[in-house]
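task queued by scheduler; priority normal; single chain, no ligands, no partner chains; default sampling; output format set to structure tokens
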Amino acid sequence: MTIDPFAGKYDSVSPAVIATPEKVDVHVREGEHGWELQTKQLTVVIERSPFRLAIYDNEGTLLVRDEQPVCFQAKGRIRCAHALTPTDVVYGLGEKTGVLNKRGAVWTMWNTDVYAPHNLETDPLYQSHPYMMVLKNGHAHGIFFDHTYKTTFDLRHESFYTFLAYACRICWRCTVYNCC
């Protein structure tokens, strides 16, 4: 999903995803409150007002749901909040110190040369990998933020997480995994 209220004026192209997208058959149904886009693997529900979306896998399991509408802040920052349950586990976010489950902390994606000792509180580090995988009741999905701007992930909340991109545009991709 790409959110760009400025119609590409502040574009920053990330070479992270270079594959040509495959053709996917999409069934679109418009309703009173928004749209439903359905493929063989996913269903995306888009609410009009307030603008929010939800993504379900082909079994109808909720993977991603906006907890709050997308928020455009001063100086071009974009903030999104997605729902989590207390038992969801979050992995990833690249080269980070600490435990595998990244819940309970704020993580920054911004390359930094760190000379201090690498302890549990050291963030950011040398590389930025804006990818996280969420394990939710035996279902896993990944979120990849495809942009080159500074981004902050706040995983301290029990029922949602936020990501704040210091950008005028944000692009994120959802991947569903068959596991567990």
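post-processing summary
- The chain has a mean pLDDT of 82.
- Residues 68 and 81 are 6 Å apart (CA to CA).
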